[in-house]
Every structure is written in structure tokens, then in C-alpha cells.
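Researcher: We're teaching a course module on how sequence relates to structure. For the next exercise, students receive a sequence and then see the predicted structure as C-alpha cells, so they can try to spot secondary structure elements on their own. Here is the exercise chain.
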Amino acid sequence: MQTSLCQRKSLCIFPVPLQPFSGAPGYLLGFPLLAGTVESAPSAGTTKQAVSHFINGLQLPGAGPDGICSGSSSDAVAVGFGYNSTSSCSVAYTLAQVSWRQA
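Model: And here is the predicted structure for the students to work with:
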């Protein structure tokens, strides 16, 4: 009588795209700085707060092709740890928008 034993094992690993940041786990030269805004939510008589982080780290507004400040993330300038970052753009205002009158 012949006996056989078969055993099969498999391991499936699905790659998760990681975007490294400075500050997690440590400060890494040139990597985007962690940044975010404080969000508050009422909860059972108290207010809980947490930081809602910016997906691409700290970014400065950038100029579109015409030099005007763009809200587009493709024009934003990422701030990397350990590097100086500058960005400039212009915003057009009317005289009425910038006028200040004393009462």
C-alpha cells in the first residue's frame, strides 16, 4: 500500500505604495515635511482634536504659466526637510477689495 502526503502553502504579498515623509519615522534629508491642520469634533461633552495631514506634505502655493497663484497641486512647490524652499506668485485685487475706510 502506497501512501502520499501533499502539503501546499502560499503567501500572497500585495505591494502597498508608500510615500516616505520626514518625521515618520525620522527626519530624512529632502523628503516632504509632514504637515496638516488641527481638526476638532465634539464627543460626549468634550472636544476631541486630531491632525488631518496633508497627503503630499507641506507645499507652498505655486504660480501657473501666467505667474498668477494657482490652486493646482501640479504648480505647488513641495518643502523638503533640510532644503530651503521659495515660491512666488501674484494675486490680482481690485481697488475696492484692498481699500480700507475709517468710519
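Model: If you want an answer key for the exercise: The beta strands are 36-43, 46-53, 59-60, 62-63, 69-70, 77-78. The mean pLDDT is 77.
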